[in-house]
């Protein structure tokens, strides 16, 4: 077993209820779930909201072009790779 370091934390009441419920559903300890959450915060890159908004705007622009005459799309797959 890995060596553990004891920490005391404070969480909100709604976080406590949700954590307890998730612990029961998954059959894992609350501590294990907290460790998973800490690992995610420390290793996952943060979400770049500006990049996501640009992507959504691009998708909307494609949708806004509407279907081609006779159906289909007005853009080609290669257009996606030119960006």
Quick structural gist:
About 60% of the residues lie in helices and about 0% in strands. It has about 80 residues and is an all-alpha fold. It folds into two domains: about 15-45, no CATH class; about 50-80, no CATH class.
What does this structure look like?
The protein has 83 residues and is mainly alpha-helical. It has two domains: 13-43, no CATH class; 49-82, no CATH class. The protein is 60% helix and 0% strand. The longest helix is centred in the C-terminal third of the chain and has 16 residues, at 49-64. The chain is elongated, with a radius of gyration of 23 Å. The chain starts with 12 loop residues before the first helix and ends with a helix.
Low-confidence stretches: none
Query: What share of residues is helical?
Result: 55-70%
**How much is the average pLDDT?**
87
How many structural units, i.e. domains? 2
User: Major β-sheet, in short?
Assistant: none
Number of DSSP-assigned strands: 0
Instruction: Output the radius of gyration.
Output: 23 Å
Distance between the termini: 48 Å
> How would you spell out the order of helices and strands?
HHHH
Q: Hey, roughly how much beta strand do the residues contain? A: under 5%
Q: Which structural category do the helix and sheet elements fall into?
A: mainly alpha
Principal-axes geometry comes out as: elongated
Number of distinct helices: 4
